[in-house]
Known about the structure:
By secondary structure, this protein is mainly α. It has helices spanning 8-37, 48-57, 59-86, 93-115.
Amino acid sequence: MSQKRHIEPLLWSLFGAGGTTIAFFFPAMILVVLAVSLGVIPAEALSYERMSGFFLNNLFGQLILLVALVPSYWACIHRIYHGLHDLGFHPGAGLKVLFYGATLVLSVITIILVLF
């Protein structure tokens, strides 16, 4: 019996983490934008200076930004890759490595840019 290991469970778990992130963060972001546009939250509270200060100069804000972005990358690329299968295109292993490799590079670049 073969003991060949597959990376697919890891990719599906990253997809699940990204899908969960998208499901929790983005509706909240939409509600905040609606609250600002309706005047419930003052627009100055979400000014560029305040938001960039929170997300780029505060460790808690940096972690929130990373949790919102990085898993979302993996969910998006996984949907694109498997969506190609649904459309009848069957990319080979080379394209899979390119897709997921580029997503890994993008994730590492995002982590470096946000934290350093």
